[in-house]
Amino acid sequence: MTLRFLFCPLFVVVLLAGPAAAQVPARDSASTLSSTATTRPWLLKLGTGLTRGFEWGGYPGLTVPVVLGAEVVLRPGWNLYANGFSGFNLGGGYYRDGLALRLRQLGAEVGLRRYYHQQKRQAKGRTSGPFTGNYVGLQSTSTWYYYRNPAGGQLGYDHSTLTAVWGLQRRLGGHGLVDAYVGAGVANLGRGRYEPATGRYTTYRFPPQFTPELGLKLSLVR
Q1: I want to staple 89 with a disulfide (CB 3.0 to 4.6 A). Which of 13, 104, 134, 152 is the partner?
Q2: What's the rounded Cα separation, in Å, for the pair 12 and 16?
Q3: CA 49, CA 26: separation in Å to the nearest integer?
């Protein structure tokens, strides 16, 4: 029920994106953007950064994220994207037997972006295109954590978020990309407790709470 609540608003916005994007007054500029989008309708990304999956300090020590994603053009200025991310713990934690590199968390996010002022960027000679510029968007994220215990470990659902974001995305050379964003929304946070009698974690869920969103991703793209 929680996942349905978080994802439904995003699907509604996706359905509305088509008619809204079609109402572009600058016909020549829109045609140029449409031609570019048709030539390159999608973008694949592989990267890391200060994003979900990154942790520093405390029990996990250093956890480094790896993000694999794709972004596709729906209409000029409107893009849909999806990312899968994982966090790998580099030797932290209390149970240090076995491999030094361990899976800490897995997650997925899907969102809709509106790249704005594309025509103005073109008129001023700035870099523009279907995957470049400032944007506003709506994003939903779900995360699963790998909980370690003396008996081994288990992968369990942690929480989901629905956030509104503002950001900028720029190309770095021929195959580099930087994506920085901030935002805020709601999350169904919980608290896990290890039960020695059963050897499993029990999660106690809180009501939806305010949550900030902040990220910086550096990626190789194709």
Answers
A1: 104
A2: 6
A3: 37
Angle at 187 between CA 181 and CA 191, to 5 degrees: 125
Torsion over CA of 26, 27, 32 and 37, rounded to 10 degrees?
Answer: 90
Q: Which domain holds residue 185?
A: 2-221
**pLDDT (tens digit per residue) in 122-140:** 888 888 889 999 999 999 9
Which pLDDT band, with edges at 50, 70 and 90, does 52 fall under? confident
- Give the three-state DSSP class for 10: helix
Reduce the DSSP state of residue 46 to 3 states and report it. Answer: strand
pTM: 0.75
Burial 100-136 (b: 16+ CB within 10 A, else e): eebbbbbbbbbbbbbbeebbebbeeeeebbbbbbbbe
Give the number of domains in the chain: 1
Alpha-carbon distance 202 to 110, whole Å? 27
Q: Which of 155, 117, 138 is nearest to 33 (CA)?
A: 117
Cβ-contact 179, 79 below 8 angstroms: no
What is the Cα–Cα distance from 28 to 26, expressed in whole angstroms?
Answer: 6
Neighbour tally for 16: CB within 10 Å = 12
- For residue 40, count CB atoms less than 10 angstroms from its CB and return exposed for 0-12, middle for 13-18, buried for 19 or more: exposed
CA angle 197, 200, 206 (to 5 degrees): 115
